[in-house]
Design brief:
Elements lengths: L1 H18 L2 H17 L3 H4 L1 H7 L1 H4 L17 H12 L2 H14 L2 H26 L2 E2 L5 E2 L2 H9 L8 H40 L15 H18 L2 H30 L4 H10 L12 H20 L6 H5 L7 H29 L3 E2 L4 E2 L5 H13 L1 H34 L1 H20 L3 H24 L1 H16 L12 H13 L1
Antiparallel strand pairs: 1-2, 3-4
Helix pairs in contact: 1-20, 2-8, 2-20, 6-12, 6-16, 6-18, 7-14, 7-16, 7-17, 8-13, 8-14, 8-16, 9-10, 9-20, 10-11, 10-18, 10-19, 10-20, 11-18, 11-19, 12-16, 12-18, 17-18, 18-19
Length: about 525
């Protein structure tokens, strides 16, 4: 068994280095840059508009953003919350801290860069997801990269050889999404929940091992408890997941941000030096890294980009799967929710984590060097504990619980839709049973290899998805220009809403009724 695991680790390491190496990062960031320039910096130029049409609309009286009269769909805000449920996870806490410990303070800058361009990647994914979505046998919306790969890349250009290639890419994306859902979307998250709760609440207890095994009884009990709660929500489908996310996600995110702001206020004197270190070490390696520009590229930039994508998922094509279930009529409207999703996940939540990590003295801001014995997994907990004692440690453990648990819920929907694409509705029922059963495995296993494999599957999802987004860039620009002409410049032009005439007609009728 050990020999087999060694082979798996070796193969995974080779694939991971290829996927997340320079070519993969160029593909990821390059796509965002092309989309940003192609849309003439939509995320900046129309910031007032997309802000008004997204989060600001939630607080507008009588807004349809938070409501859905169709029992088969979810509201735009619920779609956002369900997507944020999957994206705001351990990457926002442990992932950011790990990036700083591994790549220095400058990794935060490259995380911001990835998010800035990732806004338009996520925007484009959502635009394509809504444009190419269709209804399944149950009347529910089904969309995602597998759909715009097959029906967009495969059919739009009328090139014969593209059809089989696009189908293969769609199948590959679906397979990688299913594997990632078991890893990063399930076992890795549960493993992190259990380890953090154990460290926070049972640190003074001797581990209780089940006789004849290496299974920690506390870990097993926690895993069973998570399984029961998750089953009640996941087996209820997207409507139940969305309703849960709508309540929990805003609450958990705001509480965490408030806690981080309090820590920032307690260390206000070091804020200036903290931001200086972020920008200084973005363009030169921190002292502990050594080397020159090559090290900067391989460590600081890579850590920032990788952890940024790991957190906000822009470029993976995953969140568009749940965004496609929205009751929205305009592809660009849901695209703008994608911009806000990346903005909130990275520029708000991840930045708050970075401030907590860098302002509490565990990283030497002069040299960018972490203090002796500091590791990314526990750094945020140590930072809160420094100011609030054991209560701070509890706070981070509970925050990690909510962040990671909602990630499990969101990824269950991603995997369900990927299975539905490959095997139909019957396959989804089997998948959900397997998915919730694997929660216990995540609770009792060693997490290292799971995280490494999950990282690889995330990267593998990115490749077919970005091929589809790049190939359909002209369509994204056309749909975006059409929306801007109608809604911003007030021109009288026909809307572009769907690839399918019957859905186009249905959405046009609904727009006329508004």
């Amino acid at each position: 068994m050990e020999k087999f695991l060694e082979i798996v680790e070796s193969v995974n390491s080779a694939i991971n280095n290829a996927v997340w190496g320079l070519p993969g990062l160029i593909l990821l960031i390059g796509t965002g840059i092309l989309l940003t320039f192609g849309t003439k910096f939509f995320q900046v130029r129309h910031i007032a508009h997309w802000w008004k049409m997204t989060i600001a609309s939630v607080f507008k009286k009588g807004s349809q953003t938070t409501k859905s009269s169709d029992k088969k769909t979810i509201s735009q805000f619920q779609a956002l919350c369900a997507a944020l449920a999957a994206t705001i996870g351990t990457g926002n806490i442990a992932g950011v801290a790990a990036a700083i410990v591994t790549g220095g303070p400058g990794a935060v800058f490259w995380m911001w860069v990835a998010a800035f361009f990732g806004m338009m990647t996520n925007f484009s994914e959502n635009v394509l997801g809504i444009y190419y979505r269709s209804r399944n046998k149950n009347g529910e919306w089904s969309g995602g990269p597998m759909h715009y790969l097959k029906h967009g890349l495969g059919e739009r250009y009328g090139i014969k050889w593209l059809k089989p290639v696009s189908k293969v890419l769609a199948v590959l994306f679906s397979c990688f999404a299913i594997l990632a859902s078991f890893g990063i979307g399930n076992m890795a998250q549960v493993n992190k929940i259990v380890l953090n709760i154990d460290a926070a609440f049972f640190t003074n207890m001797e581990p209780i091992m089940i006789p004849g095994t290496e299974i920690n009884l506390i870990h097993l009990c926690l895993g069973i408890a998570i399984l029961i709660v998750a089953s009640l929500i996941i087996l209820g489908g997207i409507k139940r997941i969305a309703k849960f996310a709508e309540v929990v996600v805003p609450f958990m995110a705001m509480i965490y941000v408030v806690g981080a702001v309090i820590v920032m206020a307690m260390n206000i004197g070091s804020i200036g030096a903290m931001f200086v270190s972020i920008f200084k070490y973005a363009f030169r390696p921190a002292a502990f890294l050594g080397g020159g520009l090559g090290v900067l590229i391989s460590k600081t930039m890579t850590q920032g980009f990788k952890r940024g994508v790991f957190s906000n998922e822009a470029g993976l094509g995953s969140s568009v799967i749940v965004h496609s279930s929205s009751n929205v009529k305009e592809p660009v409207r849901q695209g703008m929710w994608g911009i806000f999703e990346v903005f909130f996940d990275t520029f708000v939540v991840c930045t708050m984590t970075a401030i907590v990590v860098l302002s509490t003295g565990f990283i030497d801001l002069e040299t960018g060097t972490p203090a002796s014995g500091i590791v990314g997994d526990t750094l945020v907990s140590q930072a809160f504990g420094k100011h609030f004692g054991v209560v701070g440690t509890w706070f981070v453990a509970i925050a990690m619980l909510f962040f990671a648990f909602t990630t499990v819920l969101g990824w269950s929907q991603y995997g369900s839709k990927a299975v539905e694409y490959l095997f139909g509705q019957k396959g989804v029922k089997v998948y959900k049973v397997i998915f919730v059963a694997m929660i216990v495995s995540g609770a009792i296993m060693e997490g290292g290899l799971v995280w490494d494999l999950s990282d690889t599957f995330n990267g593998l999802m990115m490749i077919p998805n970005l091929i589809g987004v790049l190939a359909l860039l002209p369509l994204v620009l056309k749909i975006t220009k059409n929306y801007a002409d109608r809604k911003i410049l007030k021109k009288d032009v026909a809307p572009i809403l769907s690839n399918y005439p019957e859905i186009q007609s249905e959405m046009e009728q609904k727009l006329d009724e508004e």
